[in-house]
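lol ok so funny story. i was supposed to be doing the assay writeup but got distracted and ended up predicting the structure for this chain instead. priorities right. anyway since i did it might as well share w the group, maybe its usefull for someone
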Amino acid sequence: MTIKLYDFIAAPSPLRTRIFLREKGVPYESVQVDLGSGEQLSDAFRKINPSCTVPAIVLEDGSVLNQNSAIALYLEGTYPEPPLFGRSPVDAAKVMNASSQVEMGGFMAVAEILRNSSPRMKDRALTGPENYAQIPELAERGRQRLAGFMETMNTALEGREFLAIDSFSYADITAFVAVDFAKWVKVTPDASQTHLNRWFEAVSARPSIAAAKAG
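and the output, tada:
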């Protein structure tokens, strides 16, 4: 079965799934859901994914996976090679631990800034079916959190080729997209954060990255 991925080429969240699929060499059909026009809130898409978010995939039993980590675990179990959660329970735990920390410290910080400051996201401070007003103070807090995240990443990558284990993993995908997403709010690693910059340059050169960014 060819995987049908509900996607939006410009959004960071489905990029994580596309990189994962490209690393695995798994073919997929990308169904674009235009977030810019609000298509994710349409009645048609709500029937597919009531959470009104991308990425989403529909399994053979009709159930929907709409969280990156859940999609990644499904794909890892279905297509085990090459492994992106390592080859042991300890590896898998380290990968999920690092990925979750990046989501909280990196992704959420960028989202706080963007969704609480962008005029285009007025009353859309959170993803999902409900509207929420912006809180400008959260944008400032997000900038503080994002600065801390970059420094934490730099420290974590000192002397390491990869973030979580001794091979490229889902944690590196999550972290790459988080750092890349930060460009949306005009934040990049400082020149002094040499370990983070080295790692980001190396990951950027992986063929899966360019292919996933192209769709």
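The beta strands are 3-7, 28-32, 56-58, 64-65. The radius of gyration is 17 Å.
back to the writeup now i swear
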